[in-house]
Design a protein that fits this description.
The complex is a heterodimer of chains A (108) and B (583). With 108 residues, chain A is an alpha+beta fold. Chain A contains 4 helices and 4 strands, in the order H-E-H-E-H-E-E-H. Chain A has a single domain (25-103), classed as Glutaredoxin. Chain A has helices spanning 2-11, 32-48, 65-69, 96-103, and strands at 21-27, 53-59, 77-82, 87-90. The longest helix of chain B has 82 residues, at 501-582. Chain B has 583 residues and is α/β, with parallel strands linked by helices. Chain B is rod-shaped. The chains are: A alpha+beta (108), B alpha/beta (583). The interface between A and B is medium-sized, with 35 and 28 residues.
Chain lengths: 108, 583
């Protein structure tokens, strides 16, 4: 994982080609946390990543075997699979600064 | 099961103590058997079924193994599939770790009896961005439970979550929810927790798990380790409260209940010979009771091992089995040494009646020794067990530990109807009759062999200090080891006290001499009487002769007279006839 962090710093200010964000948001049904997380994340993405992100919202209740495969513990969980490195964020995405930091956008 | 009967007894007892008699018979807490040897006995059936149990202890105290055994036994013995949620080890690692116990986790997983889920939480990978809960874990667990119909769940160690997630308030409320949820699901759960500084677990898990808490401890004293298990609490059930030593070996965990809480083994009035006829005579004529415990104590070189060897020899000669646990000598040494007193142990070994088990006491902790003994006894099924000597065990444990181990051993053996003989070395001051292991109060028969020093020589005196339930001799016997075996000789009481050894032999010689003298005197008197009789008889004979000659004399004159008279008559008749003729 240490390698990942190094790469993060290298990639922060360059490599425009890989600028498309692939995000997966795992939620647990229609709980209040889930609803808030979806709303907050959509807002952040619209604001900072307009037209350069793909967001998949996955309800773990619909496919329970995912939980073990994806090492899910706390929900809601946001996984940023691209650009590298992969980052994981938990919570209802109400702390915008932390979400941006997690997405690697805090500098913008 | 004996546990249930205790349970019932206990209930009846509490019932009778209750003021109101109209209450319904309470429903006992359902238990979920662990299959761990000894634990189900202490807990009167196992862990509380359908409830969470906390297993806490320091690192390396056996928490994971304990919970894995609970799960595997559940799957294999009780037909209760289980889910193992590992927060620390990966499934493959776990499988390798428990393979040494003969558990094939992979096979069990394939059969759908066990499911292992490795939960990986890494703080550095996770950013917390607001409110969250552990729904992921819940879903995961629910999925795992439902997929195999699990009845048992292990969470090992859920405290790892505290390292991965920072929001303590959320974690705590979520854990509370998790345990409630598990209870609702009706699965028997084990939660492991690392021991904390002041509390049972670092994160105070005991606060959430209120039904059953078991503490595992691993102590090292004098470089020898002992594992301890204690049931801190068990709501709604009676349980043993002591610290129970337990062992982890190739067969997994075995808990050895101290004294097994019971003193109710059946007794036997059957007797068995000690192999020394004179000793049997001292013990009411018939020897020891079967299933009794015998202590032979004495100072160094007093023949304790010889007595034990003699007992074993007798037992095996009667076609019964025996195990000899030697803590000081090697089996070959004992066999050779016994040959010198005409006891052939080798033939019994060859016949499969005698088994030796020799180990230095320092090889293991006391508990390990006990387990070794218990296991061997269960395998070999002997009538007699000898431990020679128990004194050496003290080097690996404190007095009270040795006593505790021996108590349990005696209990165990008596429960199986096995006679046990211990030998113990006493300290060399003759006045203290206490054995250094303090076991003399535990045993049924105590034989003391003591040096008796007098006249510049050392002899052995044998005493029967106690012998429960039988008449026994209060006499001191001299204990002699000869080429032909062991003998007990009556000691002689002289003016200076008890005589042994050469003093005894002197006394014996003296008695022999006086006997010879007495014999001699008797025969002389006999001869004199004979002579007198002879003299008198000859006198009688001569008087008789005299009488006969006198009688003959008298007879002779009488016959002469008769003769004369007849002749004279004849003459007169002749004269008369002649005169007539002349006429």
């Amino acid at each position: 994982m240490l390698e990942g962090i190094h790469q993060n710093q290298d990639w922060d200010d360059s490599d425009e080609a890989d600028n498309h964000f692939e995000l997966s948001l795992y939620i647990a049904g229609a709980s209040s946390n889930s609803i808030r997380a979806v709303a907050n994340l959509r807002e952040i993405c619209e604001q900072h990543l307009k037209d350069r992100y793909t967001l998949r919202v996955i309800d773990v209740h619909q496919e329970k075997s995912l939980a073990s495969r994806e090492q899910l513990v706390a929900l809601p969980l946001l996984v940023k699979s691209r650009p590298y490195p992969e980052r994981r964020m938990i919570g209802d995405m109400s702390d915008t600064q932390k979400v941006l930091k997690g997405l690697g956008l805090s500098g913008e | 099961m004996p546990q249930e009967s205790i349970n019932k007894d206990n209930q009846e007892l509490t019932m009778s103590l209750e003021p109101s008699e109209s209450r319904k018979q309470p429903i006992t807490l359902p238990k979920s058997g662990t299959g761990i040897r000894g634990l189900d006995e202490i807990t009167a059936g196992g862990l509380p079924a359908g409830r969470p149990t906390l297993i806490c202890g320091a690192a390396g105290s056996g928490k994971t193994l304990f919970s894995m055994e609970f799960l595997v036994h559940g799957a294999t013995q009780f037909n209760e599939p289980g889910v193992f949620m590992a927060f620390e080890e990966k499934a493959e690692e776990l499988a390798v770790n428990v393979a040494s116990l003969g558990f094939d986790l992979n096979e069990l997983q394939r059969e759908g009896k066990i499911r292992i889920d490795h939960v990986h939480v890494e703080r550095s990978e996770i950013e917390e961005t607001g409110e969250y809960n552990l729904d992921g874990l819940f879903i995961r667990l629910a999925y795992a439970i439902d997929s195999i119909g699990a009845k048992r769940v292990v969470l090992d160690t859920i405290e790892s979550l505290f390292a991965g997630l920072t929001n303590q308030a959320v974690l705590r409320s979520e854990l509370r929810r998790l345990f409630e949820w598990l209870k609702e699901k009706g699965v028997t759960t084990i939660i492991t927790g690392e021991k904390g500084e002041a509390s049972l677990t670092r994160q105070g898990l005991e606060e959430y798990v209120s039904d059953c808490v078991i503490l595992l401890d691993h102590r090292v004293e004098n470089k020898i380790s002992t594992r301890i298990l204690r049931i801190v609490k068990y709501r709604g059930s009676i349980h043993g409260t002591n610290e129970y030593p337990f062992l982890i070996d190739e067969e997994g965990i075995s808990v050895l209940p101290v004294t097994s809480l019971q003193l109710n083994h059946s007794v036997s009035s059957e007797r068995m010979s000690s192999g020394i006829p004179a000793l049997d005579k001292m013990l009411g004529g018939e020897g020891f009771f079967r299933a009794s415990s015998i202590l032979v104590s004495g100072t160094a070189g007093t023949g304790k091992t010889s007595i034990a060897g003699s007992f074993v020899d007798k037992t095996c000669s009667d076609g019964k089995r025996a195990i000899y646990f030697a803590f000081e000598e090697s089996p070959r040494q004992i066999v050779r040494n016994m040959q010198s007193i005409n006891i052939d142990l080798q033939s019994h070994i060859d016949a499969g009646l005698l088994q030796f088990s020799a180990a230095r006491p320092t090889l293991n902790g006391l508990e390990m020794h006990l387990l070794n003994i218990v296991k061997l006894v269960e395998k070999f099924n002997p009538s007699v067990v000898v431990l020679d000597p128990i004194s050496n065990l003290i080097t690996v444990g404190s007095n009270s530990e040795v006593k505790s181990v021996l108590t349990r051993l005696i209990d165990f053996l008596q429960g199986l109807g096995i006679t046990v003989m211990f030998t113990a070395l006493t300290l060399n001051d003759n006045r203290t009759e206490q054995t250094d292991d303090g076991v003399s109060s535990l045993v049924d028969v105590w034989i003391l062999v003591r040096d008796i020093e007098s006249n510049g020589e050392r002899n052995r005196g044998l005493y029967v200090m106690k012998s429960r339930g039988m008449k026994h001799s209060n006499q001191v016997r001299e204990f002699v080891i000869t080429d032909q075996g062991l003998k007990l000789v009556e000691v002689f009481l002289g003016p200076e006290g008890v005589l042994t050894g050469s003093a005894r032999e002197t006394q014996q010689l003296l008695e022999k001499t006086s006997e010879a003298l007495r014999d001699h005197a008797v025969s002389r008197k006999d001869r004199e009487i004979e002579r007198k009789r002879f003299v008198l008889e000859s006198k009688i004979a001569s008087l008789k002769e005299e009488f006969e000659s006198l009688q003959e004399e008298l007879n002779k004159s009488y016959i002469e007279d008769e003769l004369k008279k007849s002749i004279m008559d004849d003459n007169r008749r002749e004269l008369t006839r002649k005169r007539d003729d002349l006429l």
